[in-house]
Amino acid sequence: MINISENPFTVHSPDALDQVSPETIVDLFVKKHTRFSAINQQKHSFLWGSRGSGKSFILRYMEPQCQFIEAGGVEEFFSKNDPYVGVYTPCSKGEIDKEELNLLSNAEARVITEHLLNLSIAEEVTSVLSSQFPEDYFNIDDKVEFAERAANLFDTASIAASKNQADNYHNKSDSPLKWLNKLFEEEKRRVTHYLNKVPFSEDARYQGATSGYHDFLLPLISNVQNLLQQPNVPIYILLDDAFHLTKRQQQVVNTWIANRDQGTVCVKVSSSKERYETFSTVGRGRIEIPHDYTEVSIDEIYTRNDSNYAQKVREIANKRLELSEIPANNIEEFLPKNEFEQELLEEIKEQVAEEWVEEDEPGERSDFINRYANARLFQELADRKNRKSYAGFENLVHISSGRIRYFLDPCFLMVEELKSDGVDVDEMEEIPPRIQDKILREYSRDLLIGEPEKMKKDLKPERRSHLDKLITLVKSLGQLFYNRLHDKDSREPRIFSFTIREEIDEDSEVKSVLELGRAMQYFQKDTYSSKDGGGREDWYILNRRLAPQFKIDPTGFQGRIRLTQRQLEEGCNDPQEFVRRVLGDDERQSGLEDFN
C-alpha cells in the first residue's frame, strides 16, 4: 500500500489508486470546492477534467469501501439520504478499445463492442460485491441465487465452456461471487481471442455469448439491488477516462444514458471534454443536456487567492501535511515566498500608489496597484540582472493552472530534494525558496522540452510536424508575453492568453496545431465576449507551468491579446517575426527576448 507519511505530496495515478487504502482516500478527500454535491446526484453525469485534475480520485472516493468509512459503517451508509453503490470501471487503454473492432462489419462491431463493455462492468460489479462489503454481509444462498441469475442472462449453450472453466477454479456453492467473476473473465477472454484472430483469418467467426443493455446490464444491476435488499438504491457505473473508448463504444454509453434509468443504473463518465468524441447514440439519436445528463467541469481557469481552486488546493495540501511526519501544518508557511522580493514588491506598491495619485486617481487604487506592481517587480529585477523567484504557495497555485497534480508534483519533488540534502522529514519546517525555485524551473522546462520528446515517439510523421509547429508557437507566445511584461509603457503588461479574431479555417494547419496544444495541455480553452460585439471568441490560456521557463508572471488575468489566423501561422514558424508583427516593429521592440 502507498502511504504518504514520508512525502505527503505523493501523486497517485489512476492505475495506482488501487494501492491506496480506502482510509487514506477518505482522509485525503476534500468535498468543499470540488462540486462533489453535483457529481454525487442521482443523475447521469459527465465529469470533465484534464489529466491531473483529480477525476479518478473523486470516482474512487465514491466506491462503497470509502463511503462506508465516511458514514461509519454499512448500515449507517444505507440509512442516510440518497445512498448508492459506486462501481469504479477504468477504461484502460487497450483493455476495451480493441483496435481489431475496426476490422469488423458495423453490425458485428456494435454487438461485440457493447458485449465487451458489459463484461468489463460485470467483472467490476462482482469484484465490488466480494471485496468491498463485509465478508458476512450477504447470505450465502442469496449469493448463489444471484450468481445463477446472472449466468442465466446469457444463452446457456454459448457460455458452457466458460462455466466449465469457472467450475475448475471455484466451487459455486462456496464462492459464488468469485465463480461468477471468473465466468465473466472467461467470456471476456473468448472475445479477445476471437478479435486476435480477425486480422489473420477472413473465416474467423465469433460463436460466443452476446449481451445488451436491456437483456443483460439492466437486469444484472436489478439483481444486484435484490441481493443488497435495497431495491431503491441505484448502482452508479463510474466510467473513468472514457476518452480511451472508441467512438462506437462512446455511442453505446450514450445510448445507456438516453434510457434514463437512473433509479437502477446511473452512469457517471469521466473524460477530458475535447477527447470525448461524440454525444450521438447507436440509434443515430443524440443525448442532450439537461434532459439526459448533467455535466460538471473540475478544470479551473481562475487561480487567484480567493478562488475555489486556491481554497481547494489549500485544504488538500494542509490535509496531506497533517497526515505526514512533517511538523508543518500550514502549506503557506511550508512554501514561503522569497523574502527579498516581497520587500521589494512592497516598495514598488508604494511607488505605484503615488503614481495613482499623480494620474488623478484613475479607477480603484487597489486595482491600479494590482495592475502594475507585479509587472514593475519583474522589470526592476531584470534591470538589476536578478532572476525572478517563483517560490511561495500563491505562485505555485497559479503555476499549477487549475490542475491539482501540477501543484502536487513539484511539491513532491521539493520534499525529495530536501531529503537528498540530508534533512529528515520530521525536521522539515519549510521548503527554502531556492529549492522551490529550482524545482519549478526544472518542472517548467520539462513541459517544454521533455514532454514533446516523449510524445514524438507515439506520433505519426504528419503529426510530428504539427508538434514541431506547436512547440514553436508556444515559444512565440512565451516570447510575446515576456516582451509585453517588460514593456514599461504597456497598459496591460501581465498577459498570458489570447483570443482569435475570426473563425479559423476547418482544414487549416493552425487548427490542428491548437487542438494538439489542448490535448498536450499547453493551452486551456474557453470563450470570451468579443470586443467588437456580436458573439464570443475562442480564448486560449497558456499553461502557466511554463511561466518560469519564459520568465513571465503567472499571477493574474489582466487581459488578453487578440490574434489572427495569419499571425498564429507566423507564430508556428518564426518567433522573432511573430513578436515584431504583433507588437509593432519599432525601435522600442528591437531588443526582443529570444527563448530558442
Walk me through the topology.
Layout lengths: L21 H7 L7 H4 L5 E4 L6 H7 L2 H8 L2 H6 L5 E6 L15 H26 L8 H12 L8 H10 L6 H22 L15 H16 L6 E6 L6 H12 L6 E7 L22 E4 L10 H15 L8 H4 L4 H20 L6 H19 L9 H7 L4 H17 L12 H24 L4 H25 L9 E6 L8 H11 L3 E7 L6 E7 L4 H4 L8 E5 L1 H7 L3 H9 L13
Parallel strand pairs: 1-4, 1-5, 2-3, 3-4, 6-9
Antiparallel strand pairs: 6-8, 7-8
Overview of this structure, please?
This protein is α/β, with parallel strands linked by helices and 596 residues long. Helix content is 49%, strand content 9%. The protein contains 23 helices and nine strands. It has a five-stranded parallel beta sheet with strand order 2-3-4-1-5, with helices on both faces. A four-stranded mixed beta sheet has the order 7-8-6-9. A hairpin with a 6-residue loop joins β7 and β8. α7 runs parallel beside α9 and α19 crosses α20 (509-519). Mean pLDDT is 91; it is low at 585-596.
